[in-house]
Design goal:
With about 230 residues, the protein is of the alpha+beta class. Helices cover about 25% and strands about 25% of the residues. A hairpin with a 2-residue loop joins strand 11 and strand 12.
C-alpha cells in the first residue's frame, strides 16, 4: 500500500498532509527516511517524528464548521490561526479541502482519511455552492461566461451553474476545486471578489450554523453523504 494511503486510513493525516510530512523528511519506514511514492508492507515499522502511529484509530469524527475570515485551512501548528488550533477538538482531525483565508463559510473536518480523496477529486462531480459579492454589477454576459467556463491556470474551468441573486451578488455551484478558482474566474472577466461564502458541500449546508461555530454532522446527513461517496 502506498504510504500516503496507509497513513490517511489511520485517520491521523490526510494524503495531502502526509505528502507534506514526507517532503519534510518526518516519516521513516524501517528506520529509513520515507520517499514520495514509497510502499508499506504489513510488517513495516512506520514512524512520524520518531513515534509510532497508534494501532487503534479513534471513533470516526465528521464536523461542519462555519469558517470565519482569517482562519487558515492547515494542520501546521506554526501557522497563526490554523483551523485545527481554532477548533481545538480533543482528537486529531483535518480539514477536507480548503477555503482560502479571505473566504468564509462551510468546511468539513474529519479523522476519516478514506473519504477525503473521494470528496476532492473533480471527476466525481460533487457539488460545492457559494454566494459571491463582487465590485461591479453582475450582468447576463458575466453569468453566461462564468457558467460556460473561464480560462485560468492554463485550463478552462468546467461548466457550472451561475445565478444572479442581486445587483452585486451571484450564486455559483462548482464540481471542481482549482486554487482560488472563483476569485481567478472573476478576475479574468474584469471583476473583483469582495466577499466569498461557501454555503453547501454536497448535501451538507450551513443550516443556521453561526459564524465561527461547528457541529457534528447529523446521522441522516452523514449516512447520505457516505452513501454518495461509495
Amino acid at each position: 500500500m502506498r504510504i500516503n494511503k496507509y497513513i490517511s486510513e489511520t485517520g491521523f493525516y490526510s494524503r495531502r498532509e502526509t505528502n507534506r510530512l514526507i517532503a519534510a523528511g518526518r516519516i521513516t519506514i524501517n528506520g529509513k527516511v520515507c520517499e514520495a511514492g514509497a510502499h508499506v508492507e504489513p510488517l513495516d515499522i512506520v514512524l512520524i517524528d520518531g513515534e509510532a502511529i497508534p494501532a487503534n484509530r479513534s471513533e470516526p469524527v465528521y464536523l461542519a464548521l462555519n469558517k470565519p475570515i482569517g482562519i487558515v485551512c492547515t494542520a501546521a501548528e506554526q501557522v497563526t490561526g490554523n483551523i485545527i488550533s481554532y477548533i481545538n477538538y480533543p482528537t486529531r482531525i483535518f480539514a477536507i479541502g480548503r477555503l482560502d483565508k479571505a473566504s468564509e463559510g462551510l468546511i468539513l473536518l474529519t479523522n476519516d482519511g478514506s473519504i477525503v480523496n473521494q470528496m476532492m477529486r473533480s471527476e466525481h462531480g460533487h457539488e460545492k455552492e457559494y454566494v459571491v459579492t463582487v465590485d461591479k454589477p453582475v450582468t447576463d454576459e458575466f453569468t453566461q461566461a462564468m457558467s460556460r467556463g473561464v480560462e485560468i491556470l492554463n485550463v478552462i474551468t468546467k461548466p457550472c451553474k451561475v445565478d444572479r441573486t442581486s445587483e452585486y451578488e451571484f450564486r455559483i455551484i462548482l464540481t471542481q476545486g482549482l486554487n482560488l478558482q472563483i476569485r481567478r474566474m472573476c478576475k479574468a472577466l474584469g471583476y473583483r471578489v469582495l466577499k466569498l461564502e461557501r454555503v453547501r458541500i454536497m448535501n451538507i449546508t450551513l443550516d443556521h450554523l453561526e459564524r465561527g461555530q461547528w457541529r457534528h454532522l447529523e446521522r441522516g446527513e452523514l449516512e447520505f453523504l457516505l452513501f454518495k461517496l461509495k
